Amino acid sequence: xxxxxxxxxxxxxxxxxxxxxxxxxxxxxxxxxxxxxxxxxxxxxxxxxxxxxxxxxxxxxxxxxxxxxxxxxxxxxxxxxxxxxxxxxxxxxxxxxxxxxxxxxxxxxxxxxxxxxxxxxxxxxxxxxxxxxxxxxxxxxxxxxxxxxxxxxxxxxxxxxxxxxxxxxxxxxxxxxxxxxxxxxxxxxxxxxxxxxxxxxxxxxxxxxxxxxxxxxxxxxxxxxxxxxxxxxxxxxxxxxxxxxxxxxxxxxxxxxxxxxxxxxxxxxxxxxxxxxxxxxxxxxxxxxxxxxxxxxxxxxxxxxxxxx
Length: 309
Known about the structure:
By secondary structure, the chain is of the alpha/beta class. The chain has two domains: 3-94 and 287-303, ornithine cyclodeaminase, domain 1 (2-Layer Sandwich), CATH 3.30.1780.10; 99-284, Rossmann fold, CATH 3.40.50. It is built from eleven helices and 14 strands.
């Protein structure tokens, strides 16, 4: 019988550095043919949609299914020979593992020594993106841009305390991006919030907020002029990466030019053009949920506080 893990317990059991290491291992396993990703499927039901995605690791014989709709996110965590092990409330899990995936991509794609970060957005995903970059030592100063100035000021004050680093409320996205080594967009915008013309030479971009065909956080030049474009799952990107989909339909973008994240995680260091920018398009995949759920489950059981339902 499974255990039930609430959000408050996820806060205790899932820390960013451990999640980052778990995702490194998970994507390395995928590169070796030892992990699987089942792309997200969205089913409409009236005014809401049921979203389902999954993934598994063969070496550990564990897999997970993540589902969410009009209510909380949940991960169902399984062992191949034992059945359902845990039901985990997964709002925070999703935020942490998405930040961790960006960290895994950034440490491979950004220039050595990159540490000046621009962040667009002040939501929960934005916070964990910053924390993830801090966890890998790639955030020494941060500029944040958002439309709501009052919310922006409060967000910056709180994040500065968490990071122990200078956090500035920027006047605009262009202002935030000026001179930044790493630029992160964490919004649900339907129209681009970041233009390639605003990027400093050699900048790395993490576009993490939009995962629907009709949403785009970065403009066409951010995609077309990038020296390297990476995503966590190409087949899922063909359905959800609006920045790519529109360009591909117009004949301006070749899906063959996209590199899956597992390939750079397991591959040699990237030969990087010092002046060209790079782009990681994050969608969020089930393999990331498996890796995070494993940490939570193991620590929950070790705590001795959880009994099967």
